[in-house]
Structures
1.
Amino acid sequence: MRHRTADVMLLSTVTLWALNFTVSKYVLTHGLTPLAFSSTRYAAAAAIFIGITAVAERSLAVRARDLPLLLGCAVILFVNQLGFIYGLRFSSASTVALVFGTLPIFTVLIAAVVGVERLTQRFAAAALVSFVGVVLVALGSNGGLSADVKGDLLALLGVATWAAYSVAIAPLMERYSPYRISVVIISATALLLGAGASGQLASQQWPSGRLLWAGFAFAVLGPLIATNVLWFRAIHSVGPSRASMFANLQPFLAAVFALLLLSESLAWIQVVGGIAIAFGIVVSRRVTPAAVAVE
């Protein structure tokens, strides 16, 4: 029963993450500029996390010696948001979702660079297959190399920085709850995004569409807030290995949501690329470090 409950939480988390690609794409195409969206979204999430953590833990304090790592993670997350949001701006949600399928590969590669993991020949072959898949996805953008490739490359930046964030945050998870970590990192990221978004915020004409603001609320409460609770409670119950199996569903679910809700389309070469990415992940059979659920 305990595993069944954890599985429901994991599936709910992955579904929320996957739906975020489609929702964010909709918000970007119906009135909000990229940085205005990201900065206000993170500011709202930071305020909510501060309230939750203050009530649940009675303190927001962290050790001074951990501040450099926490702030470094915030810088990585800031760059991650630039890659993610502008990747969606210049490419389709389904394409960006498929590119994000390389996340486990990037995570292990970065972990190997910093000495946390050791690469094997099997993994090197799997990584090569996955990156060939990314090339096929990019080649299929609008039927060939196009302006969408800029979005694909930015999505790759988003993947690489999220993988780096996953590895960098691991030591902090041994000393603090995900809520207290989120207070510091998301708040600092919100400040960085706010500074970078000053021009877009000043010129932003705020739309009044109910569906758009419902999407905005989802982007804050779902992928940024609820997933933290669900993901880490589930990992505590069943461990990161089982959780990673569910996380691999995210690119597929995200592409399906984009196809159904945004009426996007995928070229056959992109489908082949997505299969290659998934195949590389399966062959690698590696577990990636768990990260705070933020996208």
2.
Amino acid sequence: MKYLINAFLFFIFPLRVVFSQTAGDVSQLVSLENYLSAQTKQKGAGEAFKKAIDGNSRILQPQGMTDASEFIKSLPPHAVFSWEPVYARIAKSGDWGFTSGPFTFQEDENTSMKYGSYLSLWKKDKKTWKLAYTAAVFHEKPKNTEPRLVFLNPKNNKFLHQKSQSRLQQRKDIILSSDQLYSTILKADNTIARKEFLSDDIRLLFPGKGPLTGRKAVNNFWSKQEIKLSSKPVDADRAYSGELSMTWGEASITSNKTGAVKDYNYIRIWEIQPEFNWDILIELFVPVAPPSL
């Protein structure tokens, strides 16, 4: 069913093929993040982040998707950040890419160090990369101190060039429909949904747990939790070349034993496959903050 629906969504929106000669370079994103991480040590986290964001930058927090500039203002004045991209990809159009890796955080140099993993989506405005979306989870100190680096450029620079805003909106609607289909199947059966939608190289970033890579490791994690996941997409973003995209939304995890429910916000990174179906490359879950009294 997944393949039929995605193929249908693809063909009901006819496309005109224009082969672009624009090629991206993932090393630009990796170098940018390493530079920003180094700048936080010299100028502080707030000043370093200001160079990477604009008025459209968003961060997924326990309160939901919020303005990144407001988050920066809320940082402790002497916060110490350090991070390293270990997984990064860039779209064929060279205007859209994502990075992920470990980070450490201290409120100041005298407080205990916290560990976590982050996911960032970057978009290029003319010649400048800006942070579009970012999110992070805290977990125990990673056991593997030298993670495998995976930095991927597109295999080629050919893509379907869109001319109108209506076409671009239709392409965004397609990925939202794919996330909604995934959510619908999750409601019926989590195991079937993951079998149909998770990439073989899926990465899961979950609070309290170090990053998991690969379908087997991720499926083992979920099965041990004895829970049922449900989700609802809210919005999406998609590379101009179309093969990579992002969705974010709301999720709930229900315990099969007690019936207790925990709420989360999520981000998913997707990649289109040759059969026009979408596979999830990364899932990140941020626990929702309890309502204030």
3.
Amino acid sequence: MTTTRRLLLTALPKVPLSRLTGLLASVPLPRPLRRGFFTWFARRYGAELDDLAADLRSFPSLQAFFRRALREDARPIADGPLVWPCDGRIVTAGAIESARIPQVKGNDYAVADLLGDAKLAAQLDGGQQATIYLAPGDYHRVHSPFDGELVSITPIRGTLFPVNPPAVRCIDQLFVRNSRHVFRCQLADGTAAAVVMVGAYNVGDTVVSAPLGAIKRGQELGQFGFGSTAIVALGPGAPPLSLRAPEAKVRMGETANG
């Protein structure tokens, strides 16, 4: 099954199909149908509707619902140096060793390939990382996990493999093959850090919302369209990340300091 899935996903015209899905998801829904449709979607995918900042009828399309804002008090930002950048489930979390990050057990990839920046990768070597998968029902905005400075934002073109657990287990180097945005950062003490928003099948149009300059814990960095993956990488000397086990659930704004 793993080999068959790998062959099918590799052969699939992922980028054109994702663009088509994006267009369909952006089609305006008749206002009388919106509440019923989004309520069904929330039940189907486990989306939390109590946290919404707006009425369901205010979302003109499925794409708008994916990128929904939350009430200001829905995700309180914890005290401490690190918070989780998004809602989702842990894929891997732990040390960055030999400038590589594990995708799954026994399968890793080079940090330089992920970031497209060998110098930044060297600065992060010996630090720590957390990779978080956002399912379709999760809150789809990614926020800064720390106070510091956003130095640059680099889009890297690629394909759009799915990033759900079965695909992550069977597609080698998946996260460095997909399109992504790299947010190069520095903590307040100058320690190198990065947040990477990895695009996925049906998620080809990541929206960047943060300007360059000073950033605060909990400040929005960008938005996804239909579930994807966020990776946080911290250089040596940064506060320790909470080393959650794979599949552990995290929520944006909760403490991530181990």
4.
Amino acid sequence: MKLLRILAVFLTASAALAQTPDVDAVLDKAGDYVTVYERTFAGVVAEETYRQEIRGGTTRSDARGFPVEAQNARRDLKSDLLLVRASAGDRWMEFRDVFEVDGKPVRDRAERLARLFLQPSASAQRQVEDITAESARYNIGGVNRNVNLPVLALTVLEPQNRAWFSFKGGKKGNLFELEYQEERSGTLIRTTGDQSMPSRGRFVIDLASGRVLSSELTAESRSLRAKIDVIYALEPAVGMWVPREMREKYSLKDGSTIEGKATYAKFRRYQVMVDEKVK
């Protein structure tokens, strides 16, 4: 009887193991999903309501050498967020078009948009840098950051980037929790001093479709730790799953933190309007 019980336990464990999805199979399905998703999401605009806050930090000194307590700060942004492809290149990028800062409209919005997209740089890399700089233009805090974009983590699942990460995970009902760790030296995220910030994190993936339901991304250097979490939800207006909320936290060596929370609404598809006149 004891032998039969051991055999039953072994068979049950073997059956469970056989039913566990292979990580590579999940990656194949998620990679296909992300490839299509990026092309589809490129035609969508969302309105982002975004609050950034700075907290804590060590005591600093003023010009006279007297100690001054670190000041807390807050900024509220309203923006249109869209996925764009840099001209003369094949890189997808999110662009944050800020139209309101702390309740006040941005005055030069039309001019900078025209400069950025109607008069693009001849250099693909220069345009990438211009888009990145404009998207981070109104961030607050001592960290020059341009990673605070909700679909950034999906880059990990792009088929061309798969080789640079190690993956593991397990099934939970109809979902798969996929953990990742960056293994390369030329990392996805780098500091302004070009220091590597290896990223790690987790995706919750729908097994049937490969759809990403949530993402977690953490990147760390000697002086900074960044964490960005995103939740996705179905948006009937555009017929796809979209970022619904992003939470971020940057912990600095001096003890201060920068935290942000962004929510997304008013999803719609954008069109380029061309006005033609016959003389």
